[in-house]
Amino acid sequence: MITITLPDSSTKQVEKGTTPMQIAEGISRGLAQNALVAKLNNELVDLNTPILTDSALKLYTWEQEEGKNTLWHSSAHLMAEALEALYPNVKFWVGPALENGFYYDVDLNGGTLSTSDFEKIEQKMLELARKQNIFERKNISKQDAINYFTDKQDIYKLDLLERLDDGTISLYTQGNFTDLCRGPHIPNTSFIKAVKVLNVAGAYWKGDEKNKMLTRIYGITFPKDKELKEYLELLEEAKKRDHRKIGKELELFTFSEKVGSGLPLWLPKGTMLKEKLMQFLQKAQLESGYLPVSTPHIAHKDLYICSGHYEKYGADSFQSIKTPHEGEEFFLKPMNCPHHCEIYKSSPKSYKDLPIRYAEFGTVYRYEQKGELHGLTRVRGFTQDDAHLFVRPDQVKEEFLKVIDLVLYVFNALDFKEYTAQISLRDPNNKTKYIGTDENWITAEQSIMEATKEKNLKTVIEYGEAAFYGPKLDFMVKDAIGRKWQLGTIQVDYNLPERFELEYVGFDNQKHRPVMIHRAPFGSMERFVAVLIEHCKGNFPLWLTPNQFAILPVSEKFNNYAKKVLDLLKKSDIRGFIDDRNEKIGKKIRDQEINKIPYMLIVGEKEQENNTVSIREHIIGDKGEVAVESFISLIIETIEQDFKLKQII
RNA sequence: GCUGUUGUAGCUCAGUGGUAGAGCACUUCCUUGGUAAGGAAGAGGUCGGCGGUUCAAUCCCGCUCAACAGCUCCA
């Protein structure tokens, strides 16, 4: 007999060789029917693995990541089986599970695959899934594996085998398909009830562009039809929220081939939005002791030689600007930090001056590879809500706390309610590739961890993800439909203070090197606006939205009264316009609903007589007739209320 | 940058080896209408750019630019 310890610490005595599935059956029928994979002493295993020693056992269903991943990994095998049935010459590379679904990289031997083939593959997968084929594991020797795949003329699996040790090799077979795989897998194919082939794309063999391009087929599967339906609805919803689409519809920004790819043109409404955001942050920063600075868009090559960026990125950047003066070269600025370092150096600093916080909405230019450009999230010219804090080593933690406060203030104000903080630290096994003293690193890493802990942030620690110049803290937010985005970032930098020989005079009358902290709560205005659009689907908070109201005269006879109302509202700093087109009121309402205007003010004979407006709220509808003054206070109060609520959080 | 797909009016998109169409938007006129599309007329396109094949190219071919999907990358 052996002892099995379950997650609730209870134990079971079972015969040696009992499988996790049998234990599941002993617990409940429901669990036995839903279990997909088991964890045996920290190792994921098939449910039919005989347990030979005392073990801790945990069972996973579709509800857990482990269960999902296993189902998707097994689905990749199922898709491979379907592909092999449909395309006899196909060769397989690897087929892992992803965050949402799975893919398989295949070599179609010159054949092609298009979206029109998807249904055929899906049908075949479902047909095979219904056979309830068992995923059968077989441990074999390396030589046997080599023989097997040599017979199959499968160069890709042979390549994989080269890197595997004898004794660790296993094959999985379901139906007519056998794959080299370490597993684990779901018990049988019948758990896969709903199937969708999502996409097909090229991917280099082993991710190396010198290698052959394989066909990567993406798919997703579910244990219930309903879940597939919900997933497809989510994809539809994401499409509707696409900032490129909404940005065009709401006339926020555009691109022009003549201006150049990746160089956004902000339209009046988008500019209003962007500037409101900047004003909002600027105000918060002034209150937190930041000092606004502003620096030119170009700088002498020497600046970037000093910073080290020329050596690292020079060749892949926008190339230098020449002048009539022979040999003189300027570069478009790819970041603001070197400029800020020079500002720091413009006068001697005392320890009493620190921390110094230079803030600038600095527009920078980076020559991103063509294929990387994407709407506003990846562009070649963008404005960072940048600031550099020059601090004493003993101030790192305190400044981190303040920056975290600022970042959270921004997130709350914009209704991002869920976020996690990712702490990127040094690779503990390879400390040599980092610049800066061990002592400083330890202080900074400790400071970050303590600061996030004090703020009760949900954190993930990533070892080895730090930049070579310092550890960092990145904020990942979840948007309204659950997608994750990386927004704000805080980074410690030991490199630039060194390169620019930044100093301050300490209490001991000696020169010391300050620590530099880069931080950007939005990240960049472009990226943030993109994420915000997708988060709120273009329905911006009232304080931010480009037009807070539209006045809709019932007929042209009331245009003059509308004008009077507009003047009154403008005096109170409320933004909007009159829709004085020669259209019926129904048409105007429809159009302004589509334009997502928060408040429509309908004015006709009645309103003109009573000095009122009839409010119609976006989506909600008719809110009745009120005095113009009441509307003004409604707007002001709504905005104040909005901010107050958020302060509490 | 690599692979694939796409590029027709301001927008969304039909279409054809014999130099083009719809809906919306726009202009003018009629209409002055009370909570999601009133009516009529009109204007608008080197069919992304360059080159080739052809009697003839928006359509076929090559190159190029841009967008999209994926890969790789992101100070």
Structure report:
This protein is α+β, with helices and mostly antiparallel strands and 649 residues long. The chain has 20 helices and 33 strands. The strands form 8 sheets. The protein has an 8-stranded mixed β-sheet with strand order 16-20-21-28-25-24-22-23, with helices on both faces. It has a 5-stranded mixed β-sheet with strand order 2-1-5-3-4. Strand 18 and strand 19 form a beta hairpin. Helix 5 runs antiparallel to helix 6, helix 8 packs across helix 16 and helix 13 crosses helix 14. The chain is globular and about 85 Å long. It starts with a strand and ends with a helix. The relative contact order is 0.07. The mean pLDDT is 90. The chain binds one RNA strand of 75 nucleotides through strand 12, strand 13, helix 11 and helix 18.
Tag the structure with descriptive keywords.
single chain, 26% strand, 649 residues, 20 helices, RNA-binding, alpha+beta
Low-confidence regions: none
Q: What is the CA–CA distance across the termini?
A: 55 Å
Mean pLDDT value:
90
Number of helices: 20
Beta-strand percentage? 25-35%
Q: What is the 3D form?
A: globular
Short overview:
By secondary structure, the protein is of the alpha+beta class.
Layout of helices and strands, plus pairs?
Blueprint: E1 2-5, E2 11-14, H1 20-27, H2 29-34, E3 37-40, E4 43-45, E5 55-60, H3 65-86, E6 91-92, E7 97-98, E8 101-107, H4 118-129, E9 136-139, H5 142-151, H6 155-162, E10 170-174, E11 177-180, E12 194-204, E13 213-222, H7 225-241, H8 243-249, E14 253-254, E15 265-266, H9 268-287, E16 291-292, E17 298-300, H10 301-307, H11 309-313, E18 321-322, E19 329-332, H12 337-345, E20 356-365, E21 381-391, H13 396-413, E22 418-425, H14 438-454, E23 459-463, E24 472-478, E25 484-493, H15 495-499, E26 504-505, E27 511-512, E28 515-520, H16 525-536, E29 549-553, H17 559-571, E30 576-578, H18 585-594, E31 599-603, H19 605-610, E32 612-617, E33 621-627, H20 628-648
Helix pairs in contact: 3-4, 5-6, 8-16, 13-14
The chain binds one RNA strand of 75 nucleotides through strand 12, strand 13, helix 11 and helix 18.
